[in-house]
Amino acid sequence: MKVRHVLYFVVSVIVLLAILMFIFPKEGIRINKNWVLHFPSFDEMFLSSKNKKIDADSLINSQIDINELMPETEIDLIDNIDFAELKKSVTPLEFPENNPYVLDVFYSKLHNINSEKTVRIMHYGDSQIEGDRISSFLRNKFQTRYGGLGIGLCSPVVVYSQFSLKQSNSSNWYRFNGFAYSENYSPHKKYGPMIAYNRFAPISDSATWEATTKYSAWLEFSESDLGYSNTKSFKNIAIYYGNSKDKVQIKVISDGIELALDSLEAGEDLYVYRYKSDSYLNNLRLEFEAYDSPDFYAVSLEDESGVFVDNIALRGSSGTVFTTTDGSLLANSFANLGVDLFILQFGGNVVPYIEDKKSAEGFANNFYYQLAFLKNVVPDVNIIVIGPSDMATKIKDNYQTYPNLENIVNELRKATHRAGCVYWDMYKAMGGENSMIAWVNATPQLASPDFVHFTPNGANVVANIFYNSLIINYAEYLERMNNAE
Q1: Which of 22, 250, 344, 440 falls 20 to 30 Å from 59 in CA-CA distance?
Q2: pLDDT in tens, 362-383
Q3: How many folded domains does the chain comprise?
């Protein structure tokens, strides 16, 4: 074979491959359910990877401590703050166009906390906040700035380990979820503010129930060596319960000393048992005895004043659960809790299943109804929606951002603003497309090898960006109020 023939053949092959690079579908050609035929694109062959490189030390060192930069005692005395420059260090909150001052109600309560006494923030989210991640950082920042102690709401029964507080319980508790699979069937939708309830006696038929078997159970809450110091002590105990056929004897014990012997009411309504201590408590044991158990919705460990930040992690949930629960019980629970701000951090659990823009719109529309529902049951409450983080999946040989994640972010933002609420873009705060790969590969790691969840370091970084964004906007509110006087 002549040399020129070989050359013609090689050139022909190269041209053919180049044509295939440009015409082959980017998503590949599906052969069957399990096999997809891919062909490398021109960008993949010859251009550098889009994966971002993040210097973890640089990322962490670039974070500002807004509490030090603008302390509350001086924030309304600071003049000529360059907010535009300050905002470059954060990802700003995004407000609906027709109401850029929607958070003023919440900001006013923060600024007047001495007269308000307490401000309550309820942080709902999926597994991204499990273990009190993100919430614990926010709680520490708020309580350092405005006062307050205690972890706030806890599930009566241990659901997952967390570093802020140690929990244990007797083995005879039943748990009923309203947001994911539960091995125990609930005959009603009265799940309460944690979207789950717990009992130490089985559910029985009201028509045939008799007080024949007495049940006893216990719960323990103790300080953790790993948590922030502000979660280790508290003065006030609040137990939210209802739907009991019999009165329940309760003992309140701290460090082995019995502080109170009391009873919980029988009835179908929401009840709140409160114990107020003259001194701070560190370790708590609650003992119960009765012929029937109430539905225990939550236990709250609080201070007399300050900011409370509740961590309510709903593993596996997309956040579209509020409209599926009993609205009357939720409204009564939120009224008793005195909630001032909801932070709803959802979206991650739908990312793998959203196939196109239309399905992203469907999810966002469902989420819109959750926001409208919460605003209906808690008039004048403020809501901040934190969208999903970047998440990566293996496409061909590389991890890449899920194909429709940006569609979810954009549609969730639209739904949030349509409901008159505030949006914060966690995806953007991380760095946008393919930033999760960089966070996983950072040293120290900022995200785990599942390319979904943050490590404790990463959770603190993203929580700090969010908190700083909130306080910077709060400072703008104070400047507006001062200028209006």
Answers
A1: 344
A2: 999 999 999 999 999 999 999 9
A3: 3
- Looking at the fold, whether 133 and 70 belong to one and the same domain comes out as yes
Residue 46, burial from CB neighbour count under 10 angstroms (0-12, 13-18, 19+): exposed
**Mean pLDDT over residues 385-409, rounded?**
92
Which of residues 46 and 332 earns the better pLDDT score?
332
pLDDT in tens, 224-265: 988 899 999 999 999 999 999 999 999 999 999 999 999 999
Q: Are residues 139 and 170 in the same domain?
A: no
Q: For residue 396, what is the domain's CATH number? A: 3.40.50.1110
At residue 343, the pLDDT reads 98
Give yes or no for a contact between 287 and 273, defined as CB atoms under 8 angstroms apart: no
Domain closes at, from 273, 304, 335: 304
Question: Mean pLDDT of all residues in the chain?
Answer: 89
Q: Say yes or no: 393 and 460 in one domain.
A: yes
What integer pLDDT is reported at residue 93 of this predicted model? 97
Same domain, 300 and 312: no
Per the document, the length of the chain is 485
- If asked whether residues 130 and 262 sit together in one domain, one would say no
* Domain region containing 258: 150-304
Same domain? For 297 and 323 the reply is no
Q: 184 and 55, same structural domain?
A: no
> Would you say residue 201 has pLDDT above 50?
yes
Integer Cα distance of 369 and 171 in angstroms: 38
**Lowest mean pLDDT: which of 24-28, 69-73, 277-281?**
24-28
For residue 181 the two structure tokens come to: 């699979």
Rounded Cα–Cα distance for residues 207 and 218 (Å)? 28
pTM of the model: 0.89
CATH assignment of the domain containing 230: 2.60.120
| Domain end residue (candidates: 274, 304, 334) | 304
Nearest to 121 by CA among 163, 96, 151: 151
Instruction: Kindly tell me the burial class for residue 12, based on how many C-beta atoms sit within 10 Å of its own C-beta (0-12, 13-18, 19 or more).
Output: exposed
What are the pLDDT digits (tens) for 166-191?
999 999 999 999 997 777 889 999 99
User: Is the CB of residue 312 less than 8 Å from the CB of residue 195?
Assistant: yes
Q: Is the pLDDT of residue 283 over 60?
A: yes
Residues 373 and 453 in one domain: yes
